[in-house]
Every structure is written in C-alpha cells, then in structure tokens.
Automatic annotation (TrEMBL):
<dbReference type="GO" id="GO:0000140">
    <property type="term" value="F:acylglycerone-phosphate reductase (NADP+) activity"/>
</dbReference>
<keyword id="KW-0560">Oxidoreductase</keyword>
<dbReference type="InterPro" id="IPR036291">
    <property type="entry name" value="NAD(P)-bd_dom_sf"/>
</dbReference>
<dbReference type="GO" id="GO:0006654">
    <property type="term" value="P:phosphatidic acid biosynthetic process"/>
</dbReference>
<comment type="similarity">
    <text>Belongs to the short-chain dehydrogenases/reductases (SDR) family.</text>
</comment>
<protein>
    <submittedName>
        <fullName>3-oxoacyl-ACP reductase</fullName>
    </submittedName>
</protein>
<dbReference type="GO" id="GO:0005811">
    <property type="term" value="C:lipid droplet"/>
</dbReference>
<dbReference type="Pfam" id="PF00106">
    <property type="entry name" value="adh_short"/>
</dbReference>
<dbReference type="InterPro" id="IPR002347">
    <property type="entry name" value="SDR_fam"/>
</dbReference>
<dbReference type="GO" id="GO:0019433">
    <property type="term" value="P:triglyceride catabolic process"/>
</dbReference>
<dbReference type="GO" id="GO:0004806">
    <property type="term" value="F:triacylglycerol lipase activity"/>
</dbReference>
Length: 250
C-alpha cells in the first residue's frame, strides 16, 4: 500500500505516517518546513519539501514518491489557523488561511485525483474542523475556510464516486498537538473535550479504512457544536464572541 500525506511532517499528519509505517505501508510525506520533522530511519518513509499552495510542487512530490506505482491513500493534513473573532488578524495571516485551507485543499484533490485516475480505486481524505459544521454570519475566517473544505470535499466525493475513489472528510475538535500547545502557550485548560494524538490517529485511520463520508469527533464536541448551530445567528454571534474573548483571557 502506498500512502501520501500532505502536511505530514508534524502533528496529526506525522502521527498518521507513523501509524501506516507500523503496518508496513510505503509512506510519503511533505511539508514546507522539513526542519521540524522528527528523525526517522524507516526505509519505507520518503520525505519531500512541497507547499500545498503550489500545485506543481505537490505533483512533483507525489510522482517522485510513486515511481509509476498506484496511490492507495492520499491525506491532506495541511492547514493554517489564526483567530479573528475576538481581535484583528493581519493581511498576511488572512491570506495564508485562504491560500492554505481553500486553494491548498483543491490542489491536493487535483493531484490525488489525477494520480488515481484509471486505477478505479483509491481513498482521499482531508482534515477540516468541527467548527466548519457551523454556519453563521460572524463566524471566524478560519471557520469559514474549514466550512469551505467540507463543501469542496462533498463536491469531489460526488464527482469521484463513479470511478471507485472514496473521499473522507475529517472534522476533529481540539487535538493535543505541539502546534496547539504553541498557539496556547502550552496551556490547554480552555480546550474542551481535548483528544490525545493517538486516539485521533486511530479514529482518522479507521474512518479512511471504512471509507466514511464524514467523521466528527469527539462525540461530545460534535453534539455541542450541532446544538449551538441551531441557535439564532444573532445569539450565536454573541456566544462565540464571548467564548473567543474568554479563550484569549480578555
């Protein structure tokens, strides 16, 4: 089995890479910054420098990895985050979220689609966010981009189903990664229903194996967000603004 993971050099992506390596699969990972990738001596792991915002670099990395072999699983774990509900974000932060979370998602689907063309099989998965299931006027730019990821995945799922290619959308809550800790000064006390990385990895890999359409976890976060989403938009705006202020310690 050949597995390629975009954004696989750290966090959830790298944990998934380790999981598939443990099963004896050949794994390719890519990222913009390879210096943060832990050392790994596995002969089945290939590491590439590539940016999901640059479709040619992703094409090149996948082609170099496959060497004319089939691509069984492609996972896009690349993402960008900046909070803009309780404060302003820079143009550069907004641009990076839009580019990485939306354009990067389309680029990865296109690369995976073309690699799997003619195979009549293959699994594509993308990491969205549980926040993306909510739709209200003043939701954050991050939430809107992740909602876009879910919609893009839905479109590709419909288009690729006749060709035997499945699409799985992963919408996790808070996962205990190094990046999350860095964003929060190592204080995760205000992150409800936190999921450890090992549990998240097992949940995601199981969803891909079972070719599930959409997986939202953990269950408590899923039902909390679904409950909030039925509230009037005006009330939800107030609640989410106060939540963001609280999480920023303001």
């Amino acid at each position: 089995m050949n597995v390629f993971i975009a954004g696989g050099t750290s966090g959830i992506g790298y944990s998934l890479a380790q999981y598939y390596l443990s099963k004896g699969y050949c794994v390719g990972i890519c990222g913009r910054d390879l210096t943060k990738t832990p050392e790994n001596s596995s002969k089945n792991l290939k590491i590439f420098q590539a940016d999901v915002c640059d479709i040619n670099s992703i094409f090149s990395a996948v082609n170099d990895f496959l060497q004319n072999k089939d691509l069984d699983i492609f996972i896009n774990c690349a993402g960008s985050y900046a909070e803009d509900v309780a404060g302003n974000i820079s143009y550069e932060e907004a641009e990076e979220m839009l580019q990485t979370n939306i354009l990067g998602t389309v680029n990865c689907f296109e690369v995976a689609r073309k690699a799997m063309k003619g195979q009549n099989k293959g699994n594509i998965a993308v990491i969205a966010s549980v926040s993306g299931i909510m739709d209200y006027e003043n939701s954050s730019l991050y939430t809107k981009t992740k909602r876009s990821v879910i919609q893009i995945a839905d479109a590709y799922r419909r288009a690729l189903k006749p060709f035997g290619i499945s699409v799985t959308t992963i919408a996790p809550g808070y996962v205990d990664t190094l990046k999350l800790r860095q964003l929060n000064d190592n204080d995760l006390s205000k992150k409800p229903f936190l999921t450890d990385l090992e549990t998240a990895t097992v949940t995601i890999s199981d969803a891909i194996e079972k070719r599930k359409k959409l997986i939202i976890f953990p269950a408590k976060m899923k039902w909390m967000m679904k409950s909030l989403s039925i509230l009037p938009s005006s009330l939800l705006n107030i609640i989410m603004f106060r939540k963001a202020k609280w999480m920023k310690n303001d």
